[in-house]
Every structure is written in C-alpha cells, then in structure tokens.
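Hey, resending since the last one bounced:
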Amino acid sequence: MGGARAIPLPPSPRRGAISTRPRRRSCRFRPEVTTQVYGDLCTRAAAALRAGYSAVIDAVALREEERHSFAAVATAAGVPFTGLWLDAPAETMRARVAGRRGDASDASVEILDRQLLHNPGPLDWIAINASGDLDATLAAARRAMLH
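The structure tokens again:
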C-alpha cells in the first residue's frame, strides 16, 4: 500500500496492552482482542498512507473480513493494495515459532496450532511459498509486488 518508503505494522505488541488478561498469552488472541488489534492496525496504516509512506500490515488475517478491512484502507487512501498470503508446511511454521527470540510476535506454537485449524475461506491474495529461507521468501514477495 502506498509510496516508496514502508512502515511495518506488526500487531502483536498491541495485544498485551488490549487484553484484559495479559499474563495469559492465549487470552491475547481471543476474537474480540484480534478485532481491536486489527482495527488499530488499520488506523496506523491509514496514518502512514496519509503521510506518504507505504504500509506493510504483518498479520495472520484468518477471516475474510479482516483481509477486506486491510484492502479497504488502501482503497480509502487511493493507493493500490497487494495482499500476500505466506504459507509453509505446518511443521516448518511450528519450528519457526518455537525458535523465535525477541520477536515482535507473542504467538506460541499453541496459538499457531489453533490458527491452523481455522479455514481462512476464499483467498484472493497472492500465495507465497514461505517454506524456504528468508531470502527466497523475500524474493518471491518482491516478485509478487512487482506484478
């Protein structure tokens, strides 16, 4: 979304501030918390776009309406939107989540497993195979953004 410089917008640091039970990680991923977090992401993305930046929303967006809300921010700002759906085998994702240290996300393998049970419905975003290393995934995402 937007101009040449990008502002990354990860959702997870906000989850602890919004959740009523911040000590329990699983409570931070309740649907009502996700709705608040994603609303905040849309607000921050809109502000970045108004300031002339691109916005990269880094979120799972398992529900179709969540994905549509992200695209609507770009539409309202009059800029193009490209949704990228990164996918990898479940075991690859579990290993990556388990190995994270000092990462913006506070999702656990337990949270990932719950997310993997959810059918995201129809996907109109560009699918990116994220099973390789970071460089390969980034290259695939860049190619998708150029088309």
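The chain has six helices and four strands.

Sorry for the duplicate.
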